[in-house]
Every structure is written in C-alpha cells, then in structure tokens.
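As described in the Methods, two query proteins were run sequentially through the folding procedure within a single session, without resetting any intermediate state between them. The first query and its resulting structure tokens are shown here.
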Amino acid sequence: MLHTNMAYTTRIAILASAAAILMALELPVILMPGFLKLDFSDIPAIIGAFALGPLAGFLIVLLKNLIHLTSTQTAGIGEMANLFVGTALIVPAAMIYKGKKNRTGAMLALVAGTISMTLAAAALNYWLLIPLYQMALHLPPEAIVNMGRVANPLIIDLKTFIVFAIVPFNLFKGIVVSIITMLVYKKVSPVLH
C-alpha cells in the first residue's frame, strides 16, 4: 500500500513540475489582448488525469499554480483563474475518459473538457476574475476592455470582451492542448501505468 501511494504521489509531483515549467513558457496569441497568453501546462495535467484519474489531474493543476504563485505578477488572480479554468477542462475530461478508455473516448473527453473550460472561463471572467483584477490592480473599469479593443475592434464593453476574447482564446487553447494530448498520450501513458 505504501509503495502504491508513493508511486502515485511521485507521478503527480513529476507531472506538476513539468506543468509548472510549461506554465512559465507563455506565447502571445494573434488577435488577442496581450495578457491572454497560451501555455501548454494543462497537457501534463490531462495526461495525469487520464492515467491516474480526475483527482490526480486536479492535484497537478493545483500544484503547478502553487509553484507559479511564487513568481506571480497578477496578485495571485492569474493563478486562481488558471486553477479554476484548468480544473474545468481536466476534471470533466478525466471523468468521461475514465468511462471510455479508447481513442474515441479521449476525443469526446477533450471536446467536453474544452467546452466546459470555455464556459467556465466566460462566466468566471465576467463575474469574478475581471472585477478582481480591476480591484487588486487598481484598474478603471474600461481598462481591460480598452486592452481588448487594441487587439480586436469588435470589443466595446465587458460582454463583447468575453465573446470576442475570452471565448475564442479558450476554445483555441482547448483545441491546441487537445491535439497535442492526443499525439503524446499513448506514447507516455505506459510510463505512468
């Protein structure tokens, strides 16, 4: 029993470390506000969730954000956002994959996870995260909208910011992360099992 728990914990720690490294490597996305950057840190979390279960996926997301918190530039709000949105991707995907562990199940799981992440990101940004950014960073209400308008002139208020920045960004991220996961999972899963 102790050996099994140690192996499980070690796998989570290794995947969380890989996720934390990938989280630090951010790429800008064309036509998106400069603060919305793509990272690939959810890939180790999804791989861990598929191999070890939804709880492991959540723990990987939690640990990578705790590690990243040591160098935060967003007063911890960015890490909180990543935790909530990453969990919305990984946990539903892992739960679906757990019931159907094949290529079709993985694709369905990743599609469902991407939709879940996108909806969660839209709701969380509208009601929680953007107001927290404004309060913590002392930004006027129109500041974030203006940053979005620079990248996309269709953004004129908070609702259009969500529709034309948050939703497409998270759909794009989910698709990219899903494709890479599909390409690498079967190659690395034997090591995790």
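Immediately afterward, the second query was submitted; its sequence and tokens are:
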Amino acid sequence: MNYNGYIFRLFLRILILVSLILGLVYAIDKDYTSIATGITFVTLYVGYTTYSFVKRRFVVMDDFFEAVKYRDFSRWFPEDRGPKDIRFLYRGFNEVNRTIKDINSQNEAQYVYLQKILEMVDIGIIAYNLETGDVLWSNDSFRETLDFPSFKNIRFVEKRKPDLYDAVFETYHKEPNSISIAVQNEKIKVLISDTVFQVNDDPFKLIVLQNIDDTLNKNESEAWKKLLSVMTHEIMNSIAPISSLADTLQSHLELTLNNPKEYPLELEDLNAGIKTIKNRSEGLLKFAKTYRSLSKVTHLNLEKKKITDLFETIQLLMQPSLDVKNIHIDFKITPPKLELNIDSYLIEQVLINLILNAVDACKDRPNPEIRVLAEQKPNRGIVIKVFDNGSGIPQDIMESIFIPFFTSKTTGSGIGLSLCKQIMLLHKGKILVSSKEKEGTVFSLVF
C-alpha cells in the first residue's frame, strides 16, 4: 500500500512520544531533575514535529478542496517533490482534476455534437423554460418557419405577434396537429407537436414544428405526423437521459470530493456514463442520417469492401446484445473472398436493421437462431441473406412492410425496412423477403 510508509512513520513517532512521556514520568518519580528537563524538551520537540507531520497532509487536502469549491480544476500539484506519501496524494488529486476536466470536456463536446445533429434536421425545434420563458435551445429551422430573428425569451414573440404566440407556445399539442399560422401576411400550414420535461427542478417545453404548406396531400400529412412523433420521441430519448446522466455523474463527483473515503471515485462508472452519453448522441445522429436517406439522398461513398470485414464489423456490434438475449448468430460466406463495391456505412445499417428485426421476431421462440449468409449466384450476382427462425410475417401485411412509416409494432417507427429498400435502390440492387408464420423469415439483399 502507498500509505504504509506514512502509517509506519506516524506509528513510530507516536511510539517515541509515548516512550518519552513514560521516561519523563519515571524521571520525575525518581527525582532526576536534569534528566526530566532534557526529556521534557525532547518530548515537546517530538510532539511538535508529529503535529507538523500530520498537519501537512490536512493542509494539502484543504488546499485541494478549496480549489474544488471554486471549480478550479486547472490546479496542478507537484508530483516530484516532498515526501513519498504527499507525492502519492498529489498524484491522486491530479488524477481527480484530470478526470473532472475530461468529463467537462466530454460534456461540452457532446453538447456541441447534439447541437450540430439537431441543426441538421430540417424541422423546427425549440426548448424553453415554462416558468421564465427563457429559451434553452432552438435551431434555425424553427426561427425561419416563424420568420423571427434569434431571441432569448419567448416573450419576444408574444409582444410582436400575440396570435402566433398563443397558437405555438400557449396551446398544448400532445399529439401532432396540423395548424395554420400567419407568417409574412400569409397563412401557412404547419405540423406541431410538443412535450414537457423536467431538468432538475425546472419544467421545460419542447416544441417540434414542420412547415407542410403546399407540399403534402392527406396521405403525406399523415406520414409527416408519424415522422414528427418519431422525431420527438428520438430527440427526447437523447436529451433527457443525457441531462439526467450528467446530473448523476456530477452528484457522484460531489460526494467523492466531499467524502472521498466513504464515496471513492469509481473511474469505471464514470467511463460507462460517458460512453452512454456518446451512444445516445450517436443514436440521434443515425436517426438524422436515416431521415436524410429517406429524403432520397443520392450520394454514395462507394468503396471496395470485403464481405468478411463487413460481417466482422456487424458481429462485433451485435454479438454482446445477442448474447444477453441468448440468441445464436452465425455468419457464412461462399466463397470466402467475396467483395462488394458499396457504401459500407449504409449497408452496415441495412444489416443491423434486418438483424434487429430478426431479434424481435425470435425473442419468444425456443432456441432462437439468426444466420447471415453471403453467396455468389451465377445469374444474380452476390446475395446476402438474413435468416431467422422467428414468428414470421403475416401474409396480409407482407406487401406493406416496405411502405414508409408502416409498422405492425406498437413501438416501431416504420422507418427501418423502407430505409433498407431505399439504400438497396441507391446501390442499384433490391431487397426481397420470404416468410412463413411460426417458421421464420428470410430477407435477401441482391447486388
């Protein structure tokens, strides 16, 4: 232990001090005046050095906690000077400072990251404090839709356009609604949805707004309503956990700083928390890319890709979650050196979507199994197939599964398979499906 030297020296000093006191008592008892006087001075000296020895550590700790009190995590303690135990203490303080600085840096990066993601979305978004009206965040699309410059408080809108303020900010739209608002002396139709969430003790409202005037017929309007619902769900699924997790990490750090012995710093927990924040942000980024892909993005970053590398990446991503659910997955390539000229990110996304659907189909089946097979067909090029022994797809919905926003799941968005079809069309390929209820399903990607 790094503290063994310190404990030994402290124990030795106490032992010497006790011995001197006993010697002093003995000298006084025997009336050895000169010896007693000498022992007294030595005892006082040893007592003073012992006090200084103990006090030194508390001064160092007090200095550190003073820096923490004023959020001064830039302080650096010299690790190469002083006694060994003090240097060890300095190293610990520096490690705490580094960890907190890293967490702050990660949080700032994730905040900027999330901002950029939301700016990518071609839908107006604003979040504001319900009590004060202060704007927490809004994107350009929201301000452009309402034809307003940047504002810090929603009262700015109330003073200039009360009717617009009532329709957008005062009226609650728990379900996506189509409303008409006056902008630039014209009436435009928008889809609007909102939700209320809590950050610490402050209530906030999130509004999602989409201009759909002159662009949607009745069926398209229904599709946009579903899209807004999905986007609100995805955005809240990222913002709320990030805020909550950041608050939890901060609380744990404060407990550690205030009482390090009772609440030791768990770096693994901190690392897990930061990874969770990163994963949630990446999830929202993937959703934004999905939205852009459904908007018929035609640019592909094509590259020659070995299918073995493609499958290894998918297996690395999916294996942990499949192991937890006790679902066996097997990958096979015939012949082993097959290559494809593809946008690897998009095809990875297709395979992940298909495997996740297979997992959902297999979840209540005995001995669930998923097989992913790539093979060279003489007259059809390369085909990648995803097999499962799940519940199968009912025949009455088989023709609808690739329609955007169609879903048979209570929690589904209806984006996954339509995105897979769009990506395969971009690659000048196609996706086929064959399924039997209670036996399983096969999805084939034909290149």
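The first strand starts at residue 124 and ends at 129. We note this only descriptively and draw no conclusion about the first query from it.
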